[in-house]
Amino acid sequence: MNTPQLVIPYVSADYAALVPTFVVAVTALVVIVADLLTPKKMRRAANVAVGIIGLIAAGVLALQGWGHPIAAFGGAFVNGGFAIVFQEIVIVAAVFSLLMSYALGREDQSGGAIALMLWSASGAMLMAGAANLMTVFLGIELLSLALYCLCAMSSRPGARESALKYLILSSTASGFLLYGMALLFGATGSVALSAFANPPASSALFDIGAGMFLIGICFKLSLVPFHVWTPDVYEGAPLPVTAFMSVVTKAGTLAVLARFAYAALPSPHGAAIMLPVWIVAALSMIVGNVAALAQTDLKRLLAYSGIAQLGYIVASLAGTTAFGLRYAIFYLGAYTFMNLGAFAVVALLSRDRDEGSQLTSFNGLGYRQPILAGAMTFFLLSLAGLPPTAGFTGKILILASAVNAGFVWLAALLVVGTAISVYAYFKIVRAMYAQTTGAPIRRAVVPASALPWACVALCAVATLVLGFYPIVPSDVLPLVK
Fold first, then answer.
1. Given a cut of 70, is residue 332 above it in pLDDT?
2. How big is the chain by its Cα radius of gyration, in Å?
3. Which among 322, 352, 439, 478 is placed 20 to 30 Å from 132, CA to CA?
4. Domain limits, the chain
5. How far apart are CA 303 and CA 393, in angstroms?
6. Which residues of 101-126 are buried (b: 16+ CB within 10 A; e: fewer)?
7. Contact at 8 Å (CB) between 403 and 411?
8. What pLDDT was estimated at residue 438?
9. Helix (H/G/I), strand (E/B), else coil: 365
10. Would you say residue 336 has pLDDT above 50?
11. At 282, which helix (H) or strand (E)?
């Protein structure tokens, strides 16, 4: 008589694929324990140190999976070069955000705030390798739920309002996303992205589902016309949270979009489904830069700048070419450094209850703190796409990709958007170096922590090096099975 044997569905290789994500999530728990055991005066520094150590460990573990792709958990999570690159971008952005987190919440809130930031980062890392609809939704919600709380973690009057706006509008976008997923499941009978490559002959249900799914993705990417929440939420949220959101949310969601466009959609039909996304990217390049012209708050200006920058990155994916994906990843990495560097400069100008994000905080900065003003000018030059910066190299590569893919109109709009953005960024440069005769010059600010200086220095070096050496991994095509 044969006795039934217990079959374990998953092996160690499946769990090994998620070890970096697990490490970040467990580090958040360690931060909470350290927050309880550490003396009050050392609490915030200890929490930041534990968080950064955990993130670095996760980054090292993620790199060990390079060259060993695996479809873990029955294809729910696909680990490989594509997922690893996006996970490393998320980890770098989280580390730099933690360097600014001395201003995040009260002393007794620092442990919880840093833990929430780490859990949010683990959600973005899960999205990087998500290969079925359930994993995508799990990653998005893990990313977003923590951010709802973090946006409200400030004594500023607009913090609660920004968190409520983000909660309501993000929940609406999640509704579109979920309904689209339901229709895709109804059309294909599967939640696996690999099943979408061969939809049934009657594709109306599939098309509607894909469209609603992409609406939710465009909201998370802050693409026009789904961008209206971004400036208000960025302005109201604490500065480290704004810096974190500006990169981590976009990196995780862009990974989902790229995997959906490159590896899931059927080849002859995918171009028509993705065309509205390329149009939305074109609108974002123009609307984001035009709206940035009128801003006097750096957080709002960088919010509109981010809308335009994501338009550039998504435009690189047009035509779903291999080079387009590589250039999009390169520009996302460059954007990570130049954007977080600009936020770190704002953090160094912050006072109590004043985040230093108003344009008036930059008046005469070139005379008060020339090194800081020089670094800010360099980051703004890169955001504007001027040499010798990574932003310039990245835009040249995106232009080449769009033209080679046959999307010349996207390339032309990128040039127009870049020209408009120069005026928005140089408004800040003018404030830093213009003569202030007859006007009081604010004294140099002594920041509460010197950690943002490390962020400024590292981001400046990376922005310069990537401008001359555009490092792009070759093994980054997304897999779904």
1. yes
2. 22
3. 322
4. 12-468
5. 22
6. bbbbbeeeebbbbbbbbbbbbbbbbb
7. yes
8. 47
9. helix
10. yes
11. helix 267-292
Phi, psi of 158 (to 5 degrees): -85, 0
pLDDT computed for residue 4 by the predictor = 55
CA distance 231 to 292: 10
Query: 164: burial class by Cβ within 10 Å (0-12, 13-18, 19+)?
Result: middle
User: In this structure, what token pair is assigned to residue 153?
Assistant: 């973690």
Helices 158-188 and 229-236 sit at what angle, rounded to 10 degrees?
A: 140
The predicted model scores a pTM of 0.91
Q: What is the per-residue burial (b if ≥16 Cβ within 10 Å, else e) of 452-476?
A: bbebbebbbebbbebbeebebeeeb
| Residues 14-43: tens digit of each pLDDT | 788 889 999 999 999 999 998 888 887 788
Residue with structure tokens 């550490």?
38
Task: Dig out the tokens for 140 from the structure.
Answer: 């998005």
> Cα dihedral sign for 170, 171, 177, 181?
positive
Out of 27-41, 87-101, 279-293, pick the least confident. 27-41
Q: Which tokens go with 67?
A: 């060259």
CA distance 299 to 295: 9
- Residue 1: pLDDT over 50: no
Indicate the average pLDDT of the chain.
85
Q: What tokens does 252 get? A: 């995780």
The answer to whether residues 234 and 246 touch, using CB atoms and an 8 Å cutoff, is: yes
Which residue intervals of 38-80 are DSSP H helices?
43-63
Tokens at 180, concatenated? 């689209």
Q: Which helix (H) or strand (E) holds 72?
A: strand 70-72
Neighbour tally for 351: CB within 10 Å: 13
Q: Residue 458's pLDDT is what?
A: 92
- Structure-block tokens of residue 297: 């708050």
Type of residue numbered 382 = S
**How buried is 426 (Cβ within 10 angstroms: 0-12 exposed, 13-18 middle, 19+ buried)?**
middle
Q: What is the DSSP track for 186-241?
A: HHHS-SBGGGGGS--S--HHHHHHHHHHHHHHHHHTT-TTS-THHHHHHHHS-HHH
Query: Can you tell me whether residue 20 is helix, strand or coil?
Result: helix
Q: How far apart are CA 58 and CA 323, in angstroms?
A: 28
Collapse the DSSP code of 199 into the 3-class scheme (helix H, G, I; strand E, B; otherwise coil) and give the result: coil
